[in-house]
Write a structure and sequence with these properties.
Layout (H helix, E strand, L loop, with lengths): L13 H15 L4 H15 L6 H15 L12 H8 L6 H31 L3
Length: 128
């Protein structure tokens, strides 16, 4: 689906790799949540613990982490998915992925504001 070879960690190494990932993320979580989720997302995709659904599971875990650390969730919009694939594959250089996630977070909130304004306008037109 991403157009790249999906290999991931050997099945016998997945548990250890995931334990290490969670430990690493918890060490940076309180300092910089966006860096923590960028690292998590890139490394999780690299470990590739499941046969299918790694992207969905990784995004769900990323948003759970953000919410737990008082940050808004990030929706990676369909039109931006290819760009996400291009920037998420490097654990060594997280800056492109961080920038991408920051833009997606902003875009998510802008779209939510527009939806809220539309709802408010509809409510006003119904004279509630």
């Amino acid at each position: 689906m991403t157009g790249r070879e999906e290999t991931g960690a050997a099945a016998e190494d997945v548990g250890e790799e995931m334990d290490e990932l969670l430990k690493e993320v918890s060490e940076i979580a309180d300092k910089d949540a966006l860096t923590a989720v960028a690292y998590f997302h890139a490394k999780f995709e690299n470990i590739h613990p499941f046969v299918d659904g790694n992207g969905r599971t990784g995004r769900l875990a990323m948003n759970y982490f953000l919410i737990q650390h008082n940050h808004p969730p990030i929706i990676i919009h369909e039109e931006d998915r290819r760009a996400c694939y291009e920037v998420r594959d490097s654990v060594q250089d997280l800056e492109p992925l961080r920038d991408f996630l920051r833009c997606e977070m902003k875009k998510t909130w802008e779209k939510q504001i527009v939806r809220a304004e539309r709802c408010w306008e509809r409510k006003q037109s119904l004279n509630f």
